[in-house]
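Revision sheet: structure tokens.
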Amino acid sequence: MKRFHVHVSVKNLSDSVGFYSKLFGAEPIVTKGDYAKWMLDDPRINFAISDRDGKPGINHLGFQVESEAELMELRHQAERADVATVTEDGAACCHANSDKHWIQDPQGIAWEIFRTLGSIPVFGMPAIQARPTASACCAPAAKPVDVKVAAPCCGPKIATGALAKAKTGRR
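Predicted:
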């Protein structure tokens, strides 16, 4: 079953945890020094906040799935939308290890489609790795592109120009 995901960048994590805990009538299930997450059942949402990005507001949206089949189904739907898709298998992001696919909507908002495989003790550090990932925001290693890129806190850099045009065939 799918769960809607919203990740919001906040100015002050402690103030925001207090606000959202009262708003949702529940405490977060994960609280770290830079991150908090609620897994609500009504509405069915994975709501996360962090203060890593510096700019408050929507960081990214997405869908969390429970099975590999659901992950592939949503990936194929994204591909049918004719947009560039970035795949990350076993990504260490937001204190979790996940398989995920990233896309970007026409407004430039990053969308994450993911399946959580397990938790990790330190942000960006897989349980089997002794060092953090290259980026503080879970982005995979940058690939050379000749265009401006947009990077959500926990997402890959997604080309907003030539790469996206190459995938869609638009110029």
